[in-house]
Amino acid sequence: MGPMIAYLGLSVTMLSLAVNCHSDRCLVGNNHKTLPSPEPGMQACTKYSQSSCCYANYTQQLNVSPLIKVNNMYWNTCGQLSPQCEQYLKNVDCFYHCSPHAFHWVNPNNSYSIIAVPICRSYCDDWFTACKNDRTCARNWITDWEWNEQGNRCKNECIPFHQMFKDGKDLCESMWSPSFNVSSSNCHCLMLDDNNDDIIEHLLTHERGTATPAQDVHQDVDRSPFCQQRYKKMQKKKIKAMKQWIFFLPPNALATIHSLSTVSGC
Ligand SMILES: *[C@@H]1O[C@H](CO)[C@@H](O)[C@H](O)[C@H]1NC(C)=O
Ligand SMILES: *[C@@H]1O[C@H](CO)[C@@H](O)[C@H](O)[C@H]1NC(C)=O
Ligand SMILES: *[C@@H]1O[C@H](CO)[C@@H](O)[C@H](O)[C@H]1NC(C)=O
């Protein structure tokens, strides 16, 4: 019996080592766990349910639309955000609170913030498109507020996102600055609507996940089999999203979508 138990104990240790092989940890914060673990009961941020830095109960407040307030912070300071814009902000919140990978980009000066997470240009462009007609008074949603006991209030006037930010890159790099930087690679970067497990593993083995390694390095890696495969997946996802709008499209658009899917081999 003894050796059997010892053996079992050893396997459990090895298993947990395997799970933590990329030393995933959690950022520090009121809503962060110490270490990521499964959270089967999540109502939002479910892409992280297999390994999450937030408790399931944290996500209850995100499973609401329109979203008025998350923790201490009002999201509707310039009126209600559109559902599609809100979704991008939720993705940021989920990444920051729940992703077991966010810690890879921890700020060396404090463990509650992240710095220069490499984010994909195309994701930022879609984010900009989703929010461009919504309104905001803050260019930086971390710093540009007046705070009182009730929460955050506008310091500046409300203007449309498309006036506040120049484009997707400006939005991604300014709104939560210094958290995200647009990667010069279209492959070595995160899409926050994804759990990003495969790309993060790839980043960590290839370049430690820095936002801006030399451009020529990227041109090579972007041709690698891994990246080719990732592009294919991204394209498939885009086509799937387009197909959800199919009922609103004229018939010739269907033919276009069909030929697009044929070209991308899916
Ligand atoms: C959320 O759940 C965790 C773990 O189950 C618990 O420790 C914590 O107090 C809960 N928080 C709230 C606000 O209910
Ligand atoms: C961390 O603090 C040091 C010393 O104050 C400073 O020089 C450095 O720029 C800071 N790093 C970041 C990423 O903020
Ligand atoms: C991230 O972007 C900011 C603003 O564009 C820039 O100042 C900074 O150097 C970039 N950081 C990295 C690591 O590329």
TrEMBL record:
GO MF annotation: an example: riboflavin transmembrane transporter activity
UniProt signal peptide: 1-18
Designated name of the protein: Folate receptor-like domain-containing protein
Keywords on record: Disulfide bond, Signal
Tree of life domain: Eukaryota
Ranges of residues in domain Folate receptor-like: 25-190
Source organism of the structure: Callorhinchus milii (Ghost shark)
InterPro entries: Folate_rcpt, Folate_rcpt-like
Classification via Pfam families: Folate_rec
Family of this protein: Belongs to the folate receptor family.
Lineage start: Eukaryota, Metazoa, Chordata, Craniata, Vertebrata
GO CC terms of this entry: external side of plasma membrane
